[in-house]
């Protein structure tokens, strides 16, 4: 196993944990909203606005810090195909969440929309992370 590549994937794995933690916290806050005082919409908003820059910098770190090297060294055999597109799709879903927050706050459908969107975001993120940790990072550790 290549130490330099392991060093490169280590911080990315750590960022996955932080993003997962942030998403779980947000889901818990949303599920507490109907129970009244436990969580306020302001706290949900704060968590959503914290998540945005975390996603953006993580995707940037991967695209510039790892994907580019994999593509340069493996060419067509790089396992990164489609993953930048997934970053864009995940970020679009995140922006959807921000839109819901801005538009639906006083409507009865607000909570339902919020839950649907955050659950979809978590599902997309989990599937993406699984590909990276089980395939891409592993190949980077062996090949870079
Ligand atoms: Fe990624
Ligand atoms: Fe990632």
Write the layout of secondary structure elements.
Layout (H helix, E strand, L loop, with lengths): L2 H30 L8 H34 L8 H21 L6 H34 L1
The structure holds fe (ii) ion (2 copies).
The site of one fe (ii) ion has 6 residues, from helix 2, helix 3 and helix 4.
Task: Describe the protein in words.
The chain has 144 residues and is mostly helical. The protein has a single domain (3-143), classed as Up-down Bundle (Four Helix Bundle (Hemerythrin (Met), subunit A)), CATH 1.20.120. It is built from four helices and no strands. The chain has helices spanning 3-32, 41-74, 83-103, 110-143. The longest helix has 34 residues, at 41-74. The radius of gyration is 17 Å and the shape is elongated. One fe (ii) ion binds next to α2, α3 and α4.
Global geometry: elongated
Distance between the termini: 9 Å
Corresponding CATH superfamily? nmb1532 protein domain like
The arrangement of helices and strands along the chain is HHHH
Q: What value does the average pLDDT take?
A: 92
The biggest sheet, with number of strands, parallel, antiparallel or mixed sense and barrel status, is:
none
């Amino acid at each position: 196993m290549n130490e330099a590549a392991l060093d490169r994937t280590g911080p990315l794995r750590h960022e996955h944990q932080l993003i997962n933690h942030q998403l779980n916290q947000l889901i818990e806050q949303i599920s507490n909203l109907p129970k009244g005082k436990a969580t306020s919409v302001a706290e949900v908003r704060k968590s959503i606005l914290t998540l945005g820059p975390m996603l953006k910098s993580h995707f940037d770190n991967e695209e510039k810090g790892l994907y580019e090297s994999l593509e340069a060294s493996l060419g067509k055999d790089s396992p990164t195909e489609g993953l930048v597109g997934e970053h864009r799709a995940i970020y679009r879903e995140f922006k959807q969440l921000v839109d819901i927050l801005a538009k639906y706050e006083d409507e009865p459908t607000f909570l339902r929309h919020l839950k649907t969107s955050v659950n979809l975001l978590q599902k997309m993120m989990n599937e993406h992370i699984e590909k990276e940790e089980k395939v891409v990072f592993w190949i980077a550790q062996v090949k870079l």
